[in-house]
Design brief:
Blueprint (H helix, E strand, L loop, with lengths): L1 E3 L1 H6 L6 H13 L3 E4 H10 L10 H14 L1 E3 L3 H14 L3 H13 L3 E3 L6 E3 L2 E4 L6
Parallel strand pairs: 1-2, 1-4, 2-3, 4-6
Antiparallel strand pairs: 5-6
Length: 135
Amino acid sequence: MNAIDTNVLIYAHDPRDPRKQTTAIALIESLADAVLLWQVACEYISAAKKIEPFGYSREQAWLDIRELRSVWDAILPSWEVADRAERLLDRYSLSFWDAMIVAACAEAGVERLYSEDFGDRTIDGLEIANPFSSL
C-alpha cells in the first residue's frame, strides 16, 4: 500500500515547475492502492493557499480531497499515531508533522510513502521515495 505526502499533491496543481507537476500528476494517477492520510488531507487544504495566485482555489482543494477520498481509502489517526510520532521525533530527527505522517503510515500498514521531504530512505520499515529525485 502507498501514501502520498502533501507536497506531491500541491505540485500536481502548481504550474511553477512543469516537470514536478507532470511527475506528481502521473504518480497520483498511477496509484490504485493508495491511502489518503488525514494529516495530509488537512495540510493540503491549508497549503493550497500558496497556489491561489496561480488560479487554484480553496474550493478546488476541497473538491480534490473529496475526489481522492472516493478513489483511495481515507485513514483517520488514532492516539497511537501521536505516541509513535513522539518516539520517532528524536530517533530520526524528524519534524513533528513528518513524524506524524510516518507514524500514520505505520498504523495504516503503508509500505511506501512518496514525499519530497525525507529524501530516499527507510524509517522503521517504511520506504520513503522522493518522486522528484531524478528531475
